[in-house]
Please model this.
Amino acid sequence: MANATGKKAVHFGAGNIGRGFVACFLHNSGYEVVFADVNGDLIDTINSTPSYKVIEVGSEGTSENVITNYRAINSRTHEEELVEEIRTADVVTCSVGPNILKFIAPVIAKGIDRRSDDETPLHVIACENAIGATDTLASYIKDAKNTDPARLETHHQRARYANSAIDRIVPAQDPNAGLDVKLEKFFEWVVDKTPFEDIGIPPIEGIQWVDNLEPFIERKLYTVNTGHATAAYHGYYRRKRTVYDALQDKEAVERVGRAPLRKLSRKERFIGPAAEAAENDMPVKFLLDAIEMTFRFQDVEGDDESKELSTIMSENSAEDVVAKVCGIKPTEKIYPRLVEVVKRVQADSQEE
Model:
């Protein structure tokens, strides 16, 4: 659905990834970008700044993109305005973090519900570091709290959902950069095209459209994210302040390590590859080392999951922890080794 000024995309999350990665490609593809965020100061800055730069750095040099044709809405204070933007948008994307999806779902649901069944459905793509993030967002949108169950039968006529895998490194930013974003040249944005094939694939520069997304997600999650998180958890255990201290990368270990329960779940970056490797009789020692460090990431200030992990570890047997947190069954080869890891962490906690 095109508005009076042409193609329009609503993007939730006006941080560095939102401005520097997703919005940059939307802008370069001819979309007007409407940012939605809850940071009032950031919203004001975006609306008072007619352009900003996306600076790509790499071994072959530096290049700049100038981003224009954007606006921003405070989703906390201007919901009705945002609902109308979603109603008339072509695309909705987000980069808010997997745990925030449930909070942006209600307003997206309202915008979708107001769309006509006779127009092209809204294309929804979540750009998050999590498997099936768009499916997760869709489940929140379609929940009875947000969408009338009687409307679900025709929901596909108003919105379609495609999972994606994203990969781009955003290094430490200059504190005086304003809205400008510096990031590495290498990127990957892979999106499942199958949900959109009968309604038209949106023309977004930079997206690699594929029939099977799983290999791309697992490749990135089990290599880039596994390595990144491993450095954070080992660093935290050794009282390192930043990942830079371990891998010369200036990111706070607490930020990279946050949400340990999600990262210890069955299909995530540690348990997923460890379980698969064990089933194929491959070595898993270093993955188990990283898993142990993740289990030790407890009671970290500002991270609710780390506090919940501490409670789970203190109130359950090692076998129950492996079942509840990791989703691993006793019949799987990795199971006894995970139980051993959890018992070791629990024993050390009792001695403290």
Q: What stands out?
A: The chain has 14 helices and twelve strands. Residues 86 and 108 are 7 Å apart (CA to CA). The chain has two domains: 8-211, 217-349. Confidence is low (pLDDT under 50) at residues 1-5.
